[in-house]
Hints:
mainly alpha; about 0% strand
Amino acid sequence: xxxxxxxxxxxxxxxxxxxxxxxxxxxxxxxxxxxxxxxxxxxxxxxxxxxxxxxxxxxxxxxxxxxxxxxxxxxxxx
Length: 78
């Protein structure tokens, strides 16, 4: 069995990276929805703003997740 690599130590930068990605994703999601409403000339409904914030936060959360572990070379297909 191969030894698992040790996770990096939790520094200030790594502790705050995921929450900042989630927050920036939520803000950017709302910004994109607002720009769309500005260009289309239609007002931004509350449900659309909430959905944009939630989906942007979800996208930010998925960007902050660590990569999936890869199976050992002997178990890979191909």
